[in-house]
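Input (structure):
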């Protein structure tokens, strides 16, 4: 499966070069089967990570309105044990949040060892909406790319596996989804006039996003550009990317679990010896 993964800064990256549609050869039926298998694998990897407590996973979801951030979260989290998952949504900052640096409200939601954190929007809003709508002076937001890279490096050094997704939809697909929301009583609660206003600055957002991908793509915190016009393909790419990333740690986690098990057993035996207790098994 061709996945667009950006692992280093690239001043020439263009969003228009990445399709919003699934590749021609992708099949919805096969995707459903694959997604089912990936769900099982993700659950198993989660259990290993939970037991080993050496790493955590941070999934960052960004995208325009109606790009499917909520849908992708439901899909990924649905496969996991909720015990080890926290979802945080970042909206317009509160007064208290605005009175701090932009990472203040973000950092405390970073995942603990063994756990998943999923960000529905993130620190990136501070170089996206803030830039497009002039919510802070350029001198302030233009420094944030470096701060973000340093922040994500810090997380990675502490064992956090950072995986960032941009759900890439076309302007046409967005219009279709926004209109559908109006017609469907069960989704009408999502209606927001702001979503239509944001469409008027579509190109400004494209530029702002491109600068994010050009400057904040690193080996330890790559960006995935996910074709998101088809929900089934979007879900597959996100699940595939998370599983693929975590798979690299599988053997390490197994070793840690084996070692911890051995140490636990030895401690138990020592305790029983000291008590003169004999135990079968
Ligand atoms: P939603 O994701 O639909 O709940 O909307 C959340 C809104 O909060 C979006 O319009 C975001 O652009 C906005 N938002 C998120 N973070 C920030 C931020 N740091 N500054 C200003 N607006 C933000
Ligand atoms: Mg919205």
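Output (sequence):
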């Amino acid at each position: 499966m061709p996945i667009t993964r950006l692992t280093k800064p690239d001043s020439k990256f263009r969003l228009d070069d990445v399709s919003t549609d699934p590749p021609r050869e992708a099949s919805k039926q096969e995707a459903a089967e694959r997604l089912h298998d990936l769900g099982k694998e993700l659950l198993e990897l989660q259990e290993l990570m939970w037991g080993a407590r050496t790493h955590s996973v941070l999934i960052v979801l960004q995208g325009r309105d109606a790009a499917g951030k909520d849908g992708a979260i439901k899909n990924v989290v649905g496969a996991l044990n909720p015990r080890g998952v926290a979802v945080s949504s970042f909206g317009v900052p509160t007064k208290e949040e605005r009175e701090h640096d932009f990472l203040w409200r973000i950092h405390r939601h970073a995942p603990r060892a063994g756990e998943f954190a999923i960000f529905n929007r993130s620190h990136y809003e501070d170089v996206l909406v803030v830039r497009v709508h002039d919510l802070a002076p350029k001198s302030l937001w233009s420094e944030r790319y470096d701060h973000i890279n340093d922040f994500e490096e810090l997380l990675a050094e502490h064992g956090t596996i950072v995986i960032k997704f941009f759900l890439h939809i076309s302007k046409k697909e967005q219009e279709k989804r926004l209109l559908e929301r109006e017609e469907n009583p069960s989704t009408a609660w999502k209606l927001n006039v702001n979503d239509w206003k944001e469409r008027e600055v579509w190109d400004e957002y494209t530029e702002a996003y491109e600068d994010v991908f050009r400057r904040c793509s690193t080996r330890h915190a790559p960006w995935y550009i996910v074709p998101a016009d088809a929900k089934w393909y979007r879900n597959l790419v996100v699940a595939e990317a998370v599983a693929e990333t975590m798979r690299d740690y599988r053997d390490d986690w197994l070793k840690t679990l084996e070692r911890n098990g051995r140490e636990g057993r030895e401690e138990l035996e020592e305790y029983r010896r000291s008590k003169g207790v004999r135990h079968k098994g």
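Notes: The chain is about 50% helix and 10% strand. The first strand starts at residue 4 and ends at 6.
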